[in-house]
Amino acid sequence: MDDDPVDIAASKKPSALAVVRPARRAPTAGDLADDAVLVEACRRGERRAMEALYHRYKRRVFGLVTRIVGPNESEEVAQEVFVRIFRGLGRFRGDSQLSTWIYRLAVNAALSHVTRRPRHEGDEEALAKLPAPEVSDSDPSLSQRLERALAHLPAGYRAVLVLHDIHGMNHEEVAEILGCQVGTSKSQLHKARAKMRELLGPALAAERAEQRGGGNR
Amino acid sequence: MRCADVERLVTEYVDGDLDERRSSALRGHLRVCAACAARVEDEVAVRETAGSLAPLEPPSDMWSAIDAKLAEAEIADARRSRIWLWWQRALDGVRRHPLPVGLCGAAACAVIAVWLVRGGEQSATHPHHQLAEVSPEVKPSTPSASVESGDPCDTVATHDEQTLCQMQAADRRYLDAIAELTQVIAEERVGWPAAQAARFDAAVAELDRAAGDELKRLAVVPPPPAVAGRDPLYSIYQKKIDLLSRAAVGGSP
Question: Closest Cα of chain A to B76: distance in Å?
Fold first, then answer.
């Protein structure tokens, strides 16, 4: 439901002639109303509402933080993000969507953590040990390689690629979260994908060869 | 369309953001250029693979840890001074109603400016006021009277010691103000966009560097101490206070 790509080639396999539309589910009026109700209840200190808000955003926050800081310290940073969310809800004015505001806090905390800490050699290995995705629509080895390659991207590229490609946001939302221009978001994504293609070169070539082989059979 | 154009436009094309005319030209190029076709296929593969990554599940006990941290923070709040809580409430008010508060602030500044200018004019036209300010009857200078006035710098023995004491007191006032504003902003800055936070950090670092350089210079200045010699340092401190105040009241730098 969250991802609804339109593939004009009517095939699941990537094709040079296929344009992949941005995968995105627009927030419904129900989502917004629920968020507003939850925020009000959280401001009153209702524990059940706070727990509900946590469960609503925990995967998005944890996934985003993990893919930016790496799995070793992701739990600590994600906890810190939620503490900031609940402590800062009184200041949330509703100028932007709640999800955008939460993503902004999460990205800021993750990027601050990455830029503040000394570089650990072990982090990249730890990121490479992320559990393989449970879905099997795409080649699992390519997914694992992509997770591993994320650690080799500069933090800014990584944040844009995670928000746009993994979390399915459009450039306007990415720009609002990162506090940059839409054009900057587009150019960062372009560079991030180019770097990804470079890092995944052999795996992508193997993927292409396999598809051609499959197509010829 | 050339291969370099494909490299430049590949992301927009794959995301469906390219207009139809250029998309058609690009597709035409892909039909005759195997290298570019492979490049676009790779871009599609990266995008689709990234989009198909499964969400990561946080540890099951994370909520308990967050709940415990929230409780810890609320207990710490209960121990804070009432001034801190008042300051936070005032800042929240400014953030919620920036325009009315800004207008009130501007009006207050204008009133103060007018009052200062008119006060200066009156002093100039009434010289006996200035004389009264320095006359012994109005401004007592005996040690016992100074002790009653509560200024510890008036009780020291020599003029140099008094100057040094006044300089240290002035330093403390600037540094206390900076420390208080820094504490307020530490809470605020988590909500700022990363780019603005980075700009703010850079501006603060620049002022800290300037203050450090000035302190090094002052450390080798021979005695006697002179208050005027610290003016450049105080100017830097004042700039930092202005920067922090703007950030604290405006919500972001």
Answer: 13
Is the pTM higher than 0.80? no
**Does residue A158 contact residue A191 with C-beta atoms inside 8 Å?**
no
- A chain contacts of residue B27, beta-carbon cutoff 8 Å: 17
- In angstroms, the Cα distances linking A213 to A142, A206, A207, A217 are 17, 10, 10, 6
Residues belonging to chain A: 217
Residue B53 — left, alpha, or beta (φ > 0 → left; ψ -120 to 50 → alpha)? beta
* Helix, coil or strand: residue A7: strand
A3, A50, A142: residue with CB nearest B49: A142
* CA-to-CA dists, residue A145 to A63, A166, B163, B174, angstroms: 17, 15, 68, 53
Angle at Cα B2 formed by Cα A216 and Cα B5, nearest 5°?
100
Dump pLDDT digits (tens) for B168-220.
888 888 888 888 888 877 777 777 788 888 888 888 899 999 999 988 888 88
As a whole number of angstroms, the distance between CA B151 and CA B153 comes to 5
Interface check B33 vs A, CB under 8 A: no
How far apart are alpha carbons B1 and B41 in whole angstroms?
Answer: 18
User: B41-97: per-residue pLDDT in tens?
Assistant: 999 989 998 998 888 999 999 999 999 998 888 887 777 666 766 777 777 666 666
Cβ–Cβ gap B63/A51 under 8 Å: yes
Report DSSP state, residue B248: H
